Every structure is written in structure tokens, then in C-alpha cells.
Amino acid sequence: DSGVTQTPKHLITATGQRVTLRCSPRSGDLSVYWYQQSLDQGLQFLIQYYNGEERAKGNILERFSAQQFPDLHSELNLSSLELGDSALYFCASSVGGGLAAYNEQFFGPGTRLTVL
Amino acid sequence: ELKVEQNPLFLSMQEGKNYTIYCNYSTTSDRLYWYRQDPGKSLESLFVLLSNGAVKQEGRLMASLDTKARLSTLHITAAVHDLSATYFCAVDLRGATNKLIFGTGTLLAVQP
Questions:
Q1: Average of pLDDT values for B8-35?
Q2: B72 in the Ramachandran plot: left (φ > 0), alpha (ψ -120 to 50) or beta?
Q3: Residue B75 CA from chain centroid, whole number
Q4: Do A99 and B96 touch (CB under 8 A)?
Q5: Shortest Cα distance, chain A CAs vs residue B65, angstroms
Q6: Is the CB of A95 inside 8 Å of chain B's CB atoms?
Q7: Which of A5, A46, B66, B98 has the CA that lies 20 to 30 A from A33?
Q8: How far A110 CA lies from chain B's nearest CA (Å)?
Q9: What is the CA radius of gyration of chain A?
Q10: Which pLDDT band, with edges at 50, 70 and 90, does A95 fall under?
């Protein structure tokens, strides 16, 4: 158990809908990262927040957005869902957010999203 | 754009044999991570390699980093069935973020 929690574990929804995925980082970690894992795209970085502020963006669609709240938990919002959005979404956390020696990332159990 | 390539993509090996997974990346970095993923599960951190020439070992797995060649290897010694999983390498781009760029993954199947 990495200490990172994600809810829900599974989510089944229909095309065109909107969902919210939630992540709570390990105690003391300030950075939250979101990754998408799919068969055709592999593991892709989506977005990073550090202490409430967006730090980096990756291949995140405009239909997707995220935020990190004052208690450091993060939410990933996916809207106008398409079949191709079906994937495993991981959240990871680390102590720092960059400009450091290194920041080992610890991954949550993931949310499996199925869009029908 | 940074590319991280692993080979092989699939590796079927017998118990007791040795093999090496290769991870090549296309830009300068001296921070590389290896993760293990069991089917449908999360990613488990295996090794953190932070400098040229770094070598880490845990049980039957040993990882190394050659930053000049932009190459990391994960060596498996005397494989056992429990090592069956998908192994990912990931490169940390440093700078203002520590986002990870993952390799394609190597699916390892150890046959009894």
C-alpha cells in the first residue's frame, strides 16, 4: 500500500457524460500527478499540481481538467466522455514538485473508467 | 520530445534463466525509475537510479544506468514465476517538474 488513495475504483458511464475522479496523496506529499494508462497510448502523464498550483501539463485533452484543493487532495474532471477515454487513471504523489534532487512518485491503485 | 523505448516488449522465459530488459531514452537525464505492474494493479516502485553508473539490486533484479549511452538495464537472474509482471522504466525530466515519461513496458512471463 503506497498511501495514495483513489476513488472510485471502477466507474462505468455513457458517452457524453461527465465524471470526477478523486485522489488523496500520501501524508506530507505536496505534489499530485495524474496519469492515463490505455492499451493504445500506454502510460501518459496528464497533469501535475504542486501545493495547489498547476505545475506541468502533458497530453491532457481540453475536455479534461483538474485541481488540487487546500487539503491537497486532487480531482480530475473528465467531460463529454468518448469511448476512447476508457482507461485506467492513476494518481501519484511526491514530496516535492521539481527543482529537487529527485521526487520519487508513489502511485495510487487507480480508477478504471469504462465509457459505453 | 523525449522518447523512452523498452525492449523487448514481451519476454517469455523459463524459470532459472537470466535475461535483460533494455530501456533507451532520447534526451539527457540522470534520473530513471523502474516500476512493476501486476495485471490490473498499480505501479510498484522497484528502483530509483540517480546518477551515471548507478547500480541497484533487490533479490533477483538488478538495475543499472548509463547516462552517456542514455540506457538503463534491468537484469533478471534465475527467474521465478513470481517475477511475472509488466516492467516499466520511466525518465524524470527534471526542471520545474518531475513528471515521468514512461517506456512502453515489457511483459515478462516466467514459465515454470
A1: 92
A2: beta
A3: 9
A4: yes
A5: 15
A6: no
A7: B66
A8: 6
A9: 13
A10: confident
Query: With an 8 Å Cβ cutoff, are A105 and B98 in contact?
Result: yes
Nearest to B27 by CA among B5, B9, B7, B49: B5
Q: What is the pLDDT of residues A15-63, one digit of tens each?
A: 999 999 999 999 999 999 999 999 888 999 999 999 999 988 998 999 9
What letter does residue B41 receive in the DSSP assignment? S
Give B 18-77 residues with CB within 8 A of chain A: 31, 33, 35, 40-45, 48, 50
Q: Which residues of A touch B104 (CB under 8 A)?
A: 42
